[in-house]
């Protein structure tokens, strides 16, 4: 499962973030299109830490995730 990399401004190390859909309890796969049909769409998302290896160091964590929505 792909991780969301930390920005260079982060001072923590040895970890990354993942984003989870809390309705389906599944991790979001980046770069994949999802089609939803009709009605109101609610995306209950939660970010959580995962170990990536190397030295684990406490500090600040910053990351960016961009979502594109196309309505047809």
Characterization of this structure:
The chain has one domain (1-31, 39-60). The two termini are 29 Å apart. It has strands at 15-21, 26-27, 45-51. A three-stranded antiparallel sheet has the order 2-1-3, with no helix packed on it. The mean pLDDT is 89. It is mostly beta strands. A hairpin with a 4-residue loop joins strand 1 (15-21) and strand 2. One of its GO terms (cellular component) is pilus. This is Fimbrial-type adhesion domain-containing protein. It comes from Burkholderia territorii.
Overall number of strands: 3
Strand content: 15-25%
Note poorly predicted spans.
none
Assembly category: single chain
In round numbers, the mean pLDDT is 89
Q: What distance lies between the first and last C-alpha atoms, to the nearest angstrom?
A: 29 Å
Radius of gyration, CA atoms, in whole angstroms: 15 Å
Q: What is the topology, as strand order, of the major beta sheet?
A: 2-1-3
Shape summary = elongated
Number of helices: 0
Order of helices and strands: EEE
Helix content: under 10%
Structural class: mainly beta
Largest sheet: 3 strands, antiparallel
Count structural domains: 1
Quick overview:
It comes from Burkholderia territorii. The protein is mainly β and 72 residues long.
Features:
single chain, mainly beta, three-stranded antiparallel sheet, 0% helix, Adhesion_dom_fimbrial_sf, Fimbrial-type adhesion domain-containing protein
Question: Which secondary structure elements does this structure contain, and how are they paired or packed?
Answer:
Layout: E1 15-21, E2 26-27, E3 45-51
Antiparallel strand pairs: 1-2, 1-3
């Amino acid at each position: 499962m792909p991780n969301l990399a930390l920005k260079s401004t982060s001072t923590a190390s040895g970890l990354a973030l993942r984003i989870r859909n809390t309705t389906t309890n599944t991790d979001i796969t980046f770069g994949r299109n999802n089609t939803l049909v009709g009605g109101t769409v609610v995306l209950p998302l939660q970010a959580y830490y995962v170990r990536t290896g190397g030295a684990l160091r406490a500090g600040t964590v910053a990351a960016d995730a961009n979502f594109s929505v196309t309505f047809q």
